[in-house]
Amino acid sequence: MDQRRTPVLEAIEQYRTDDKYSFALPGHRLGQSIDDRAAAVLSPGAFQADVIFAKFAVTEAEQLMADAVGAREAIFTTCGSSISMHTAMLTIAGPGKRLLIDRNVHKSVVASLILAGATPVWLRPRWDHENEIAHPASADDVAAALDRDPGIDAVVMITPTEYGTGADVRGIARICHKRGLPLLVDEAWGAHFPFHPDVPTSAIQAGADLVIQSLHKAGGGLCQASVILVGSDRVNPVDLRLRLDLITTTSPSALLYGSIDGFRRRMVSEGRQLIDGALERANHLRARLSKLPGLAVMDESIIGHDSVAEWDPLKLSVDVSALGITGYQAMDWFDEHERLSLQLGDSRRVVCSLTYSDTDVALDRLADAFERLTTSPPAGDRPATAVPPLHELDLEQAMGPREAYFARTEMVADPAGRISAEMISPYPPGVPAILPGERFNEAVVTYLRAGKAAGMVIPDASDPGLEKFRVVAE
Fold first, then answer.
1. Is the pLDDT of residue 400 over 80?
2. CB–CB of 265/251 below 8 Å?
3. Do residues 181 and 143 make contact, with C-beta atoms less than 8 angstroms apart?
4. Residues 257-277 as b or e (16 or more Cβ within 10 Å = b)
5. pTM recorded for the entire structure
6. Does the residue 165 lie in any domain?
7. d(Cα 263, Cα 6) in Å, to the nearest integer?
8. Which residues have C-beta within 8 Å of that of residue 15, sequence separation ≥ 6?
9. Helical axes 254-290 vs 58-69, angle rounded to 10°
10. Same domain membership, residue 166 and residue 46
């Protein structure tokens, strides 16, 4: 296929030059009626590219994407990877189906379980007690779980994590396929993986049957641009499109489609060179930060640690706890004092997401800021976090997520021992600390309340102050 083509962008351009006038959507008529303020901030070009008819060029663009990454089929979505995940989960699962699922999943997977009425069998993450983070489960963990429960219908993994640690997708795919099971991989951070050998192995090329990717995280797509990749005939693409039709918009954004189109074209033509430069800059930055007192920088030595099979060098994870501060406090300090927004802060570290769009100047600015942080850190006067022994966060699934979510509920101040009727997800990364149907224990309640006081962002709790929690009524 001619990978120089960009069918969606060509359709938008053609529409604008054909002297057509539409009495259909969108009503702004290519920006003729937009507010001056909107034009100043968003630019008239955004509205001029909002050509809904360009969706008819998406089929060809999807074929080009599939060809570029080695997939059997690609399906573009414009409501984010959450909708892509809902679509994929509704395709491989339904009422009564049993799924082996990495418990370290994004909240969209839990929402998909609620929508589908499927039953999760949780695959516990590999807890890294030294670093106090979770890594993906190993291939042996998956095999053992499938041996214990032969009634599993599909397997769902997330890799890499927000910290950049990755699973052995190839090994897990082989195990699943021996049993005739499809493997769904949430690879939201890996849209660039098919285009370079020195980043984690692309899940679609490693044998996964379904893969979800977010295009905005890799650097080239607009927010909410996502793609579902089909890797085998274990998943029917017609079923996928029918499920997507149930839940997605009927007025998709041509801007999002066009950004996917452009990302693919550039990755095919320049991806190797662009990612080469990004890796070189990231390695230089990591070496510079590793020399600073009080910082511990994650590097390739994490591979092999607690089942970590691969590691994404474009994730910069820096432990700042030796400075006497939390990652929450450091993240706020970067924002307030350096005007730098970081991807994630937790009880010990900050994480920066690096892409090929970052210049030498930008990374020098980040390194300079870290140097100032180490020489003059903020006072460690925030409330302390309370991270328990991590296995205490392995909660009992006492009721199905859908059953608990739609149950009669009540709000209680002391939920220990009660069944949750809500998701509570520190964000980022958006992994629920507790989800509907799991039973609260003291450890998770203390962890959430102390984290909230220390600066943890929790956007989805019924009571934002965590004074009370929503539980299934007794």
1. yes
2. no
3. no
4. bbbbbbbbbbbbeebeebbee
5. 0.95
6. yes
7. 10
8. 51, 53, 54
9. 30
10. yes
